[in-house]
Specification:
Layout: H1 3-26, E1 32-36, H2 43-59, E2 63-67, H3 74-81, E3 89-94, H4 100-103, E4 115-124, E5 127-130, H5 139-148, E6 154-157, H6 163-175, E7 180-183, H7 188-193, E8 199-200, H8 204-212, E9 217-221, E10 247-254, H9 259-273, H10 276-282, E11 287-288, H11 293-314
Helix pairs in contact: 1-9, 2-9, 2-10, 6-11
């Protein structure tokens, strides 16, 4: 390359760097949208709204929540994958994000190449609950019932590949029981309350009010230790079944979003999830986490491998 060409290339690189830095310094200058793949009221919606309120106060710019449920998160993910790469459209990703590539060959995006993980926000236990008419007060008793009548008992979920499906499947496989999967578009918890389905394993925060009201009976919690909100409910592992899991939510953005903007978002998310306001609002329901990008990326990759293997072994996917 001639000296003039070298000079012009170097100048362009410097200007690009200056431009990105200026863009990050001015960010945000308008409304940010957090697209949530779940309906209002659930755990994902709760964390999104708490974080949105904290960021709105921190930045002085509106941060709004846009609920786009459906297709186990594919609709919401597609919206964000197609969005401008400017940092103003985020996805609140959950456990389904690394699972969908196993289940749907024609999703309109690449779950890994089209997104950049920013930060894990929260994790929480999932709680196995039954309709009170089921004659089991512990997980061991329920396993005994299910083993005595293979296929009689059913479990609800928000759809194939949802966390509710995968965790119930994981518990059933670890316990050696055969239950029928009943997917719901919505209202999986209500299906168990009404007695249409035997069991559901939702997030603790989404089902705690129904448990406290006596509408559902808790059997076991999926985390490594008992929940402060339900100290008398044992873990799945304490109940003799070698299984643990936590549900999670985190922010990802379109690939190609400028690195300085990504860094600014990541730092702000950590500040907000560790704030006293968000801790007070959600700390009793879930574990609030501000992670690095690498930590979040490793979690997504690990779940992709874990659930792909589980789905194949269960027969949900071809071997």
């Amino acid at each position: 390359m001639k000296p003039l060409g070298i000079f012009l290339a170097a100048t362009a690189a410097v200007l690009a760097t200056v431009g990105l830095a200026a863009q990050a310094q001015d960010f945000p200058s308008r409304t940010i949208r957090i697209v949530v793949a779940r309906p209002p009221g659930g755990a994902s919606d709760q964390i999104a709204r708490a974080v949105a309120a904290g960021l709105t106060e921190k930045w002085g710019q509106p941060v709004v929540v846009d609920n786009q449920p459906g297709a186990n998160g594919v609709i919401a993910s597609g919206i964000v994958a197609r969005a401008a790469k400017d940092g103003y459209t985020w996805l609140l990703a959950d456990d389904a994000h690394p699972v969908n590539p196993h289940l749907q060959a024609s999703i309109p995006y690449d779950s890994f190449k089209d997104f950049v993980p920013i930060s894990l926000l929260a994790s929480q236990s999932m709680l196995m609950v039954v309709n009170p008419s089921i004659p089991a007060r512990t997980l061991q008793e329920f396993v005994a019932l299910a083993k005595a009548a293979p296929g009689k008992y059913t479990y609800a979920s928000m759809g194939v590949g949802s966390a509710q499906h995968l965790v119930a499947l994981g518990i059933a496989n670890a316990a050696g029981i055969d239950m029928l999967h009943v997917p719901f578009k919505s209202g999986s918890i209500l299906g168990v309350i009404q007695g249409d389905v035997s069991v559901v394993v939702p997030s603790l925060s989404s089902v705690l009010p129904q448990v406290e009201a006596g509408k559902l009976r808790p059997l076991a919690i999926t985390s490594s230790k008992r929940a402060n909100a339900l100290p008398d409910v044992p873990t799945v592992r304490e109940s003799g079944i070698p299984f643990e899991y936590f549900a999670w939510e985190g922010i990802i953005v379109p690939a190609g979003t400028p690195a300085p903007v990504v860094a600014k978002i990541q730092a702000a998310l950590i500040d907000v999830v560790n704030s006293s306001a968000v801790q007070k609002q959600l700390g009793d329901k879930m574990t609030l986490i501000g992670s690095t990008q690498d930590e979040f990326a490793r979690l997504i990759a690990a779940d992709y491998a874990r659930w792909g293997k589980a789905l194949k072994e269960s027969g949900t996917l071809p071997n």
